[in-house]
Inverse folding.
């Protein structure tokens, strides 16, 4: 009976769950209204409702085209990237017992950056750049696992191999930047590496969303196993957990999600570090509460950051620049308040 009550109490209460669902919707609606051509939030709701019900509700045609063709895919991309980076960051911090663990701990971001840069130098399309980023992001993680497989496997050696692989691909990116055409290719590489959602459309989203949702689903299904794994290998085995298998599934799923998000937005730092700590402060370390909270807050955080990037000046600021400027001081504040944990 006591175990049943504990299990029942481990989930989110109705008010918290409703807030976590409502917050991203509020942020998304506000984001759809912001821009050089401002749209009233009421008009945004009318535009969205008209498309959903399939009826003409008297919405302005130009505003409707702007909202659906430009702003909706961008807001969706911000939500996808924010949730993906935050959830994978929370998972890695728990599995590796390291408050600085991030989605790119195993070198996936640098690998994806190399793949995208290689595609740009080769003159491939936007879809080719996405494919290159995903392929080399996953290749970086596979190389990190291959290095560990040759020696004594542990979380420490896996992190070290990830740092090694990340450094290797970072150097390869520098080499591509050195040999790239400085008038056309180099600016594209630099801008992509700084992160941006300006070029995301429905085509890019449609290629990423199916595998993204599938692997995010795996991570949410493994929430309780992540709780046990974060206690240590010996404790996990005492619960009947196959440590190597389950940890491998979680790390592989996190790596795929990270590669997919990086292929959409470029490299965006600090989201996967800062947001999980903020979520942990609000709902605690239990992954059954932490992952939904991280996903919701990650969506809100990146939507707000993207709004800032495209409205604070006449020229759009790369999103990775702003996340670094905001994220680092936030993390220092968490350290000062002794809120950094896993």
């Amino acid at each position: 009976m006591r175990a049943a009550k504990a299990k029942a109490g481990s989930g989110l209460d109705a008010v918290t769950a409703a807030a976590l669902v409502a917050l991203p919707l509020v942020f998304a609606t506000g984001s759809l209204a912001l821009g050089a051509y401002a749209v009233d939030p009421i008009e945004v709701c009318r535009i969205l409702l008209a498309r959903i019900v399939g009826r003409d509700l008297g919405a302005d045609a130009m505003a409707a085209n702007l909202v659906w063709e430009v702003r909706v895919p961008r807001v969706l991309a911000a939500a996808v990237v924010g949730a993906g980076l935050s959830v994978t960051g929370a998972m890695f911090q728990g599995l590796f017992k390291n408050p600085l663990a991030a989605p790119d701990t195993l070198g996936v971001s640098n690998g994806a950056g190399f793949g995208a840069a290689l595609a740009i130098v080769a003159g491939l399309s936007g879809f080719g750049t996405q494919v290159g980023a995903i392929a080399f992001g996953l290749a970086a993680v596979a190389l990190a696992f291959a290095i560990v497989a040759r020696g004594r496997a542990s979380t420490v050696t896996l992190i070290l191999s990830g740092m090694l692989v990340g450094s290797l691909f970072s150097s390869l990116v520098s080499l591509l930047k050195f040999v790239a055409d400085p008038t056309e290719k180099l600016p594209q590489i630099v801008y992509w590496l700084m992160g941006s959602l300006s070029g995301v459309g429905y085509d890019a989203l449609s290629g990423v969303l199916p595998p993204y949702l599938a692997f995010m689903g795996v991570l949410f299904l493994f929430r309780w196993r992540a709780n046990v794994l974060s206690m240590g290998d010996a404790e996990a085995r005492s619960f009947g957990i196959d440590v190597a298998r389950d940890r491998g599934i979680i790390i592989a799923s996190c790596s795929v999600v990270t590669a997919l998000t990086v292929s959409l937005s470029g490299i965006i730092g600090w989201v996967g570090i800062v947001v999980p700590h903020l979520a942990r402060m609000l709902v605690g370390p239990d992954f059954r509460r932490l992952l939904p909270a991280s996903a919701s807050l990650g969506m809100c955080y990146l939507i707000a950051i993207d709004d800032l990037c495209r409205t604070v000046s006449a020229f759009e600021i790369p999103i990775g620049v702003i996340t670094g400027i905001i994220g680092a001081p936030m993390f220092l504040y968490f350290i000062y308040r002794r809120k950094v944990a896993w």
User: Anything to note?
Assistant: DSSP finds 15 helices and no strands in the chain. Residues 64 and 284 are 41 Å apart (CA to CA). Residues 1-8 have pLDDT under 50 and may be disordered. The longest helix spans residues 61-96.
